Each structure stands twice: as C-alpha cells, then as structure tokens.
C-alpha cells in the first residue's frame, strides 16, 4: 500500500479530486463468495443498462435500414445519423454512471488493492480508451454512429490504426476500459459486469450488418440513386454482335474486291464485262454467220435434208 500511496502523491490535488484514487470507506469482503451483493438495486440497474444499450442501437438501426423511419421523420440521412449520435452517446454516459455507482455499493476484494493490480487496471483502461478514441477519429461521427444504416456510406474501408490491429477495436476497447475500472475499484462484481459487457458486445456483433448481407441490393444507397442504363438480354446482345460481325465481314469483302478490280484495270488485265444481248430482227440475221448451240445445229441440219 505504501507504493500505491507514493504514486498517488505525485498526482496534482486538483486532478486527484476528480479521480477515484482513495479507497477510504471501502468495505472488503471476507471471502470471494461474499464479494458480490446481489441485493443491491444499483447492481441490477447497471446490468439493465449494459444489456439495453446494444439492443437499442441494433434494433433501431435495423429498422432504419429497412424502413427509413428516422429519415422520413427528420428529413434526411444526416439528421438521422446525428439523432443516433446524441441518443447512443447519452445512453453510454448513463450506463457508465450506473456502472460506477454499482461498484461503489459492492464489496471490495483486498487482494486487488496490490500495486500490480493497480498498474494492470491503468494499462487496461488507457489501452481501451486509446482503441475507442482512435476508432472514432478514424471513422468520424457519421461512420461511428450508424451512418451506413442511414444511407451515408464511406468511400472505402478504413484500414488505418486501430482497424489494422483489431477487427472491432471499439468493442474491444470499451470492454478493456470496463475491466480496468473494475480492477481499479477492487470490485469482483465489476469484473463480472465487464464479462457481461463483452458477452453482450459479442452477440451484437453477430447481428450487426445482417440486413446488409440479406439484402445486398440495398447495400449501396448512393449507387442505387443513380439511374442505371437498362442492360440488354443475352440473346439480343448475341444477335446484335453477330449482325455487326457479319456486316463488317461483308464490307471488308467488298473493299477487297473493289481494290482488286481497280488494280486489274490499271494493269490492262481486267476481265471484260458481259454485255446484254441485243435483240435484232430476223432479216438482219440472213447471211450473218452465227454461233449456235448443238441443239440448234442439229435442227438446222434436219431442215436441210428435208429440203433436198
């Protein structure tokens, strides 16, 4: 205890007045079995607040994602997001107050007063707050307080610290801060409540974003608002592509033929065109040698024999 008191002595009095540094008035339990007083109403108020907060933001966020209730009532996505910010932040402060009040009214455990546990409590609380604060800084107000459920999507996934270290740094950081506070208060009941915080967060994580997985067409609200060009069916698209290919091939063939013809005419080897046969009178055919087919030739010979 001497080391603990020496550490406290270095903290300025004005700062120490706002911190739970003194354990004066603590009632220590005789055994671990008597370290939790379930008859205290403050304990159950803290339990109710810990369970209620994740239920509130999950139920209201899922309803907003499906029905746009707040957007219709408040006139847009941004007012709905700031409504979530005010209510969730306020409920968080109320929960923390009820949690600390419950720890004050619970028995304490003397072994947790050792300097090593005090150092552990400080490390857990500080690291937890670092995760929470840096998460809010990286996501912003809109990204932190359910802006995606209100139709405001971030341009890209956040990959900077602390999201490159933990998948859910806000939940982990909050649970660590609760545990550090419980150890600092030397409260076994606080450790039990911290475990409840983590269980509730774990359940909330399983349902968070479930609607987006079930309804991927509503995932990108901004993209859905942009008119899309209607797509052609595969059959029509195939037919159109075939017609274009055939037309292109025919055009290429005609161009090759025209080029070949022009080259032949320039060289004087062009094939003479077939002239249309000119009709003449029978009198003009007398005495004119004619090229006839075999059938006409045979008919002419038969006519000569009859004449003889």
TrEMBL record:
<keyword id="KW-0472">Membrane</keyword>
<feature type="topological domain" description="Lumenal">
    <location>
        <begin position="62"/>
        <end position="73"/>
    </location>
</feature>
<keyword id="KW-1208">Phospholipid metabolism</keyword>
<keyword id="KW-1133">Transmembrane helix</keyword>
<feature type="transmembrane region" description="Helical">
    <location>
        <begin position="119"/>
        <end position="147"/>
    </location>
</feature>
<dbReference type="GO" id="GO:0032259">
    <property type="term" value="P:methylation"/>
</dbReference>
<feature type="compositionally biased region" description="Low complexity">
    <location>
        <begin position="260"/>
        <end position="271"/>
    </location>
</feature>
<dbReference type="InterPro" id="IPR024960">
    <property type="entry name" value="PEMT/MFAP"/>
</dbReference>
<feature type="transmembrane region" description="Helical">
    <location>
        <begin position="73"/>
        <end position="94"/>
    </location>
</feature>
<comment type="pathway">
    <text>Lipid metabolism.</text>
</comment>
<feature type="topological domain" description="Lumenal">
    <location>
        <begin position="1"/>
        <end position="40"/>
    </location>
</feature>
<keyword id="KW-0812">Transmembrane</keyword>
<dbReference type="GO" id="GO:0005789">
    <property type="term" value="C:endoplasmic reticulum membrane"/>
</dbReference>
<feature type="region of interest" description="Disordered">
    <location>
        <begin position="216"/>
        <end position="248"/>
    </location>
</feature>
<feature type="binding site">
    <location>
        <begin position="126"/>
        <end position="128"/>
    </location>
    <ligand>
        <name>S-adenosyl-L-methionine</name>
    </ligand>
</feature>
<feature type="transmembrane region" description="Helical">
    <location>
        <begin position="191"/>
        <end position="209"/>
    </location>
</feature>
<feature type="transmembrane region" description="Helical">
    <location>
        <begin position="168"/>
        <end position="185"/>
    </location>
</feature>
<feature type="intramembrane region" description="Helical">
    <location>
        <begin position="41"/>
        <end position="61"/>
    </location>
</feature>
<dbReference type="InterPro" id="IPR007318">
    <property type="entry name" value="Phopholipid_MeTrfase"/>
</dbReference>
<feature type="topological domain" description="Lumenal">
    <location>
        <begin position="143"/>
        <end position="185"/>
    </location>
</feature>
<keyword id="KW-0256">Endoplasmic reticulum</keyword>
<protein>
    <recommendedName>
        <fullName>Phosphatidyl-N-methylethanolamine N-methyltransferase</fullName>
        <ecNumber>2.1.1.71</ecNumber>
    </recommendedName>
</protein>
<keyword id="KW-0808">Transferase</keyword>
<keyword id="KW-0489">Methyltransferase</keyword>
<feature type="transmembrane region" description="Helical">
    <location>
        <begin position="42"/>
        <end position="61"/>
    </location>
</feature>
<dbReference type="GO" id="GO:0006656">
    <property type="term" value="P:phosphatidylcholine biosynthetic process"/>
</dbReference>
<keyword id="KW-0949">S-adenosyl-L-methionine</keyword>
<dbReference type="Pfam" id="PF04191">
    <property type="entry name" value="PEMT"/>
</dbReference>
<keyword id="KW-0443">Lipid metabolism</keyword>
<feature type="binding site">
    <location>
        <begin position="208"/>
        <end position="209"/>
    </location>
    <ligand>
        <name>S-adenosyl-L-methionine</name>
    </ligand>
</feature>
<feature type="region of interest" description="Disordered">
    <location>
        <begin position="260"/>
        <end position="308"/>
    </location>
</feature>
<feature type="topological domain" description="Cytoplasmic">
    <location>
        <begin position="207"/>
        <end position="308"/>
    </location>
</feature>
<comment type="similarity">
    <text>Belongs to the class VI-like SAM-binding methyltransferase superfamily. PEMT/PEM2 methyltransferase family.</text>
</comment>
<dbReference type="GO" id="GO:0000773">
    <property type="term" value="F:phosphatidyl-N-methylethanolamine N-methyltransferase activity"/>
</dbReference>
<comment type="pathway">
    <text>Phospholipid metabolism; phosphatidylcholine biosynthesis.</text>
</comment>
<comment type="function">
    <text>Catalyzes the second two steps of the methylation pathway of phosphatidylcholine biosynthesis, the SAM-dependent methylation of phosphatidylmonomethylethanolamine (PMME) to phosphatidyldimethylethanolamine (PDME) and of PDME to phosphatidylcholine (PC).</text>
</comment>
<keyword id="KW-0444">Lipid biosynthesis</keyword>
<feature type="topological domain" description="Cytoplasmic">
    <location>
        <begin position="95"/>
        <end position="121"/>
    </location>
</feature>
<dbReference type="GO" id="GO:0031966">
    <property type="term" value="C:mitochondrial membrane"/>
</dbReference>
<keyword id="KW-0496">Mitochondrion</keyword>
<keyword id="KW-0594">Phospholipid biosynthesis</keyword>
């Amino acid at each position: 205890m001497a080391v603990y008191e020496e550490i406290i002595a270095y903290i300025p009095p004005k700062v120490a007045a706002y911190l739970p540094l003194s354990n004066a008035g603590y009632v220590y339990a005789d055994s671990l079995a008597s370290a939790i007083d379930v008859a205290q109403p403050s304990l159950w108020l803290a339990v109710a607040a810990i369970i209620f907060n994740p239920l509130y933001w999950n139920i209201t966020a899922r309803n907003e994602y499906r029905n746009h209730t707040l957007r219709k009532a408040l006139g847009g996505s941004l007012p709905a997001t700031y409504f979530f910010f005010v209510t969730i932040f306020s409920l968080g402060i109320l929960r923390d107050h009820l949690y600390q009040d419950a720890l004050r009214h619970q028995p304490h455990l003397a072994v947790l007063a050792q300097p090593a546990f005090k150092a552990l409590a400080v490390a857990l609380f500080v690291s937890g707050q670092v995760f929470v604060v840096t998460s809010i800084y990286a996501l912003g107000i809109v990204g932190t307080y359910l802006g995606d459920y209100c139709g405001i999507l971030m341009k890209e996934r956040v990959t900077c610290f602390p999201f490159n270290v933990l998948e859910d740094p806000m939940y982990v950081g909050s649970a660590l801060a609760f545990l550090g506070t419980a150890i600092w208060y030397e409260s076994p009941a606080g450790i039990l409540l911290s475990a409840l915080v983590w269980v509730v967060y774990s359940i909330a994580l399983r349902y968070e974003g479930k609607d987006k997985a079930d309804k991927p067409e509503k995932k990108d609200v901004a993209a859905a608002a942009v008119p899309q060009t209607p797509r052609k069916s595969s059959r029509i698209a195939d037919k159109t592509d075939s017609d274009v290919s055939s037309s292109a091939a025919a055009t290429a063939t005609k161009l090759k033929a025209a080029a070949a013809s022009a080259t032949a005419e320039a060289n004087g080897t062009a094939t003479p065109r077939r002239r249309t046969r000119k009709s003449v009178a029978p009198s003009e055919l007398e005495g004119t040698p004619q090229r006839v087919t075999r059938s006409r030739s045979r008919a002419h010979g038969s006519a000569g024999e009859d004449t003889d």
